[in-house]
Amino acid sequence: MAKTLFENIWDAHVVAQEPESPAVLYIDLHLIHEVTSPQAFDGLRKRGIKVRRPDRTFGTLDHGIPTTDRSLPIVDELAARQITIMERNCAENGIQLYGIKTGADKQGIVHVIGPELGLTQPGMTIVCGDSHTATHGAFGSLGFGIGTSEVEMVLSTQCLLQRKPKTCNVRIDGALKKGVTAKDIILGIIAKYGVGGGTGLVYEYTGTAIRTMTMEERMTVCNMSIEGGSRAGLIAPDETTFNFVAGREFAPKGAEWDKKLAWWKTLPSDAEAQYDVTYSLDADALEPMITYGTNPGMGMNITERIPDPDKIADLSQRKALEKALSYMGLQPNQQLLGHKVDMVFIGSCTNSRISDLREAAALLKGRKVAEGVRVLVVPGSTPIKKQAEAEGLDQIFRAAGAEWREAGCSACIAMNGDQLEPGQYGISTSNRNFEGRQGKGGRTFLASPLTAAASAVTGVVTDARVLTN
Amino acid sequence: MSKFPTISSKVIALNAENVDTDQIIPARFLKVTDKLGLGEQLFCDWRYNSDGSPKPDFMLNKPEMKGRQVLLAGDNFGCGSSREHAPWALVGYGFRAVISTSFADIFKNNSLKNGLLPVIIDKETHAQLFSLIEEDPNTSLSIDLAAQTLTLPDGRAVNFPIDSFSKTCLLNGVDEIGYVLGMHEQIEAYEAAHA
Ligand code: SF4
Fold it and tell me: What value of ipTM does the predicted structure carry?
């Protein structure tokens, strides 16, 4: 029978399936970080057991870690404590940690370092106590975000209980116009199908626009699958994928590579494979996107006007929009173009890779950040930071007046002091614009690195094409 | 985990769609390394002023709401982050069930593992419940997991879905990790075959 990519991976990982029960799925790779794992390790301790497969478990410090000089002591006592506990848990269980004291040269955001180290490979099942694990789906691997109880389950059994989700073909055909990016594609999908559009589904992104993308662009698309509510996001592996993985530290080598590659080539969905649902987006027609509200589905083309709640028939949607606009301090029918911004954040697991930094730097080169705007550039990993420095990108950012930081989640989640002040507006390349996400009372516009960099220069929301044409 | 009881309780209604986990428990409280005490910070930014004083008209702060075990919420409750701190905070506050038309997948999973029952009902009943509670804020509902029914004050019972595995686990207090640990032979066999 014709099978989808998702079914091919799923079927290869079922350890047991009792009737009426969820499947017991084998997990090839478990990524952990300091915020969602301490209680799971406590659980193991209470049971008197150790991590079953430390060789399949890798840790990083990213969520709460400072992005300023790491040789200094961490001021936030709670964050420092969480980091110490993570270090102890990894050491006690023989888990490789990319942190401050160990593996610092490879530390970074969990979803950035997995692919970078070659840990992420096609056909794998990958979990992490973080909802953006779908990022790894860009490689044709099945990545689930899990809760801490599930982290405990995977640490102790290397398995996860999962009910089989349904599949959705998200077809994106066409070619992007100049100045329109992968970020705009995923913001476009979420604006079109809503933040609950993917509930119970696994998205597989297909179509010509996806095929011509780099791995970095594919990761940006898959990263925000959860913002559309889907359980995971997948892209079929191809030569682009294999070339990216080849030669990385943990990638298979020699005969093992040949064996794996042969299997990876069998993974893509059969032409006749059936999906439960089909969504689509026309890449040709897409414009740069920006969000105006307090969930990632409240997005629009950057030149459009904010919708008017009075024109929305559904009562609860109308109330949701009214509430969002009141929090954001915005008016119906208002344009966002020209709206002031106080902070620009270029970073997060969505857009902090070298290609994102290059794009932003190309725009900022020879330009200055507008007066009164704070610009934070936070690379996704320490190797990316080094690479950017080798290319002189840090100099460009600094010369423009931006802050160049150490790698981490930073203002995406605002746990470490990198954040908006109450009432401030930020344009951010991250993935969430929820109330308070980037600091209590802070207001977030989500957009691409291009839009963010252009807005940094002008101090107001700006369509980058105006500056680059 | 303790066995899930039949609940009979008045309701706290929170009429907002897409309530995300950053609202349920903001990220700055995720620095805890245990599960305790998060109930205090539940819905923190909606519940307290910036000086830490409670906002008197936020539902959870009204004295008569104390001790209510059921939360009635809008569509797509619990979207966003995978943080299990969200159900920990809800349970920490004292909730045992949340009623909505839909829940985000990860939140639903996390809730079931912490003895918090997601009760999914149709749009019509959902709207009726909100108006019932608007009319009489002391409306009491009962939830019987074994029968999978939500009973309204007029005696009308509405069924809600739950997969049989989660139901059994909740009703019998089954430890899911223990269940999978018990499959070590199959896991070893899988690992041997895929080494
Ligand atoms: S960058 Fe943001 S979204 Fe990504 S893992 Fe870190 S906190 Fe989560």
Answer: 0.91
